[in-house]
Design goal:
- The structure holds two protein chains of two kinds.
- Chain A is of the alpha/beta class.
- Chain A is built from eleven helices and eleven strands.
- In chain A, 62% of the residues are buried.
- Chain A folds into two domains: 133 residues, Thiolase/Chalcone synthase (Peroxisomal Thiolase, Chain A, domain 1); 216 residues, Thiolase/Chalcone synthase (Peroxisomal Thiolase, Chain A, domain 1).
- In chain A, helix 5 crosses helix 8 and helix 7 packs parallel to helix 8.
- In chain A, a hairpin with a 2-residue loop joins strand 5 and strand 6.
- In chain A, the strands form two sheets. In chain A, strands 3-2-4-7-1-8-11-10-9 form a nine-stranded mixed sheet, sandwiched between helices. Chain A has a two-stranded antiparallel ribbon with strand order 5-6.
- The relative contact order of chain B is 0.21.
- Chain B has a single domain, classed as OB fold (Dihydrolipoamide Acetyltransferase, E2P), CATH 2.40.50.840.
- The radius of gyration of chain B is 15 Å and the shape is globular.
- In chain B, a hairpin with a 2-residue loop joins strand 7 and strand 8.
- The mean pLDDT of chain B is 94.
- By secondary structure, chain B is mainly β.
- Chains A and B meet through helix 4 and strand 5 of A and strand 4, strand 5 and strand 6 of B.
- The structure holds zinc ion.
- Zinc ion (ZN) binds next to loops of chain B.
């Protein structure tokens, strides 16, 4: 193929609002905070912003804010705006922004994901702790799981984790390495929710939620907003904090778009997502300096590790066991800001933010000479990825 | 699961209504294509394989294998008293027909991947909700 169009885009700015539990702030309030910080970080003003993209936008889950709300709150003047939940997972909002910039429809797109889950309030089945998707309230695909009390993604992911253990001998001690690694890294992240030290014995002793997933296999709801500015790469030299290059996007949805009917019960859609990303680049998994891989549930990270190719199919348990390979000094430093299990469910955008910080060399835990970062977000049929580079690709 | 039945929140669509009513005569039915013969689940408006509109419910044996499962220790929906098993069962007629269900009629720790199971139905209002139990198990 010719040069993939996504390489015309860079991430020129990135920022977060305050992140925490019980902030008792509205989604749009958090969004404006993150957005203004990201625009300033990019060396721009709101007058330069001509595009807005978000996930999920109107009608989506996990609280948040609509693109139109941010548009109005900052009195933006836009050439393009997009939101939606039928994307390649939450990073679909970034993909859309990249494509808008690459095609010249917009030049500086403000992209955000806001969650308001940590302030109590009534929980619907499928929301709150261990949520994600859940009860649709209509006769959709979840009608075949809700009557059986399987109202949370925890139940569905647990079924995949169980089969992975059955087929490949993956153990809970191996799975626990994801949670323990996240907790250790979160200690350096001032915005993380849980920072107290955790050992593998702590992990093994905590109560079960949906076997084989225990409490520490499920991420922690929080309130917070993450915003990035996607700009044309022509702007890169002027980005004061340094522009991060977009080398490849991973967007494929090649199997059945279903939590329960996917052909393989030991992998999920990220298998196709990552494959499509590698098809668009001359880089390989060996070039990746750190990986920021979704951990809404710890098993999803194992699935991402295999999908990205850091190890073979079924080998992720052995790969992560003991934490050496995935620690800050390991072969593939993983979720260096603590991930969602400990730092809070920012729905993939915490991983994206950390990727930008690593490529700028400004992360709380610095991966030396970081030039290439793989980011993967989502689970089930809703997964997307990005291959990012230090400077334009 | 023991004691009172949990709330069965069935939200049927026009395409799936037959599935939730099928157990009235003790038979499980799955949508099947009248042209290519493939089984279709969840049911839809056309055959996804040959796009034929000649589709309809057809009885199956109601036997299958546990492909995977989870034991829930959290009351994800009020009335589902933990621990309870949610499982995916692959039907004998076509293992790509994967059915979410509860496994009943045995001890929780007897459930395992590969276990042979058969359908039974729990009446819930106008619906007959398909559940599965180990093949040859007593009434639950
Ligand atoms: Zn057909």
């Amino acid at each position: 193929m010719g040069e993939p169009l996504e390489r015309r885009a860079v991430i020129s700015g990135a920022a977060q609002s305050d992140v925490g539990r019980r902030l008792y702030r509205t989604g749009i309030d958090l969004t404006v905070e993150a957005a203004l910080r990201a625009v300033a970080d990019a060396g721009l003003t709101t007058a330069d912003i001509d595009g807005v993209s978000t996930y999920p936008g109107f009608g989506g889950s996990f609280g948040g804010a609509m693109g139109a709300e941010l548009h109005e709150a900052l009195r933006l003047s836009l050439n393009w705006r997009s939101s939606g939940v039928e994307t390649a997972g939450p990073l679909g909002a970034v993909h859309n922004a990249i494509l808008a910039v690459a095609t010249g429809v917009a030049r500086h797109v403000l992209v955000f994901r806001t969650v308001v889950e940590g302030s109590g309030g009534p929980l619907r089945p499928g929301s709150g702790s261990g949520g994600g998707g859940g009860m649709s309230g209509s006769a959709g695909p979840f009608q075949f799981m809700i009557p059986y009390g399987a109202a949370s993604a925890a139940c569905w992911v647990a079924c995949y984790a169980r089969r992975h253990m059955h087929d490949y001998g993956t153990t809970r001690t191996q799975l626990g390495a994801i949670a323990v690694n996240g907790r250790a890294n979160a200690a350096a992240n001032p915005k993380a929710i849980y920072t107290e030290p955790m050992t593998i014995d702590d992990y093994l002793a905590v109560r079960m939620v949906s076997e084989p997933l225990c409490l520490y296999d499920c991420d922690v709801p929080c309130d917070g907003s993450t915003a990035v500015v996607v700009s044309h790469r022509d702007y890169a030299p002027d980005a004061p904090a340094g522009a991060v290059g977009v080398n490849a996007i991973g967007t494929a949805i090649r199997g059945r778009p279903s939590w329960d009917q996917f052909d393989d019960l030991t992998s999920m859609m990220m298998r196709h997502t990552a494959a499509s990303m590698w098809e668009r680049t001359e880089l390989s998994v060996d070039d990746v300096d750190t990986a920021q891989l979704y951990d809404g549930f710890s098993w999803l990270t194992l699935a991402w590790i295999e999908a990205m190719g850091f190890c073979g199919k079924g080998e992720s348990g052995a790969f992560v066991e003991g934490g050496t390979n995935i620690g800050p000094d390991g072969a593939v430093p993983l979720n260096t800001s603590g991930g969602q299990l400990s730092a809070g469910r920012l729905h993939g955008f915490g991983h994206l933010h950390e990727a930008v910080m690593q490529l700028r060399g400004t992360a709380n835990i610095v991966v030396d000479n970081c030039e290439v970062v793989a980011v993967g977000a989502g689970g089930g049929p809703e997964t997307g990825s990005l291959l990012l580079t230090k400077g334009p690709s | 699961m023991s004691g009172d039945s949990p709330p069965r929140f069935v939200l049927a669509s026009p395409e799936s209504e037959f599935y939730w009513r099928s157990g009235a005569d003790g038979r499980l039915r799955i949508q099947r294509c009248g042209d290519c013969g493939r089984w279709i689940h969840p049911p839809g408006p056309a055959c996804p394989f040959c796009h034929s509109r000649r589709i309809g419910p057809e009885p199956v044996a109601g036997t299958g294998t546990v492909a995977t499962y989870t034991v829930n220790h959290k009351e994800w929906i009020p009335g589902f008293t933990p621990p309870y098993v949610f499982a995916f069962v692959e039907l004998d007629e076509d293992p790509t027909v994967r059915i979410g269900t509860n496994i009943v009629g045995c001890k929780i720790d007897e459930v395992e991947i590969g276990m042979r199971v058969e359908v039974l139905f729990e009446e819930s209002g106008e619906w007959h909700v398909p559940l599965f139990r180990p093949t040859g198990a007593r009434e639950h």
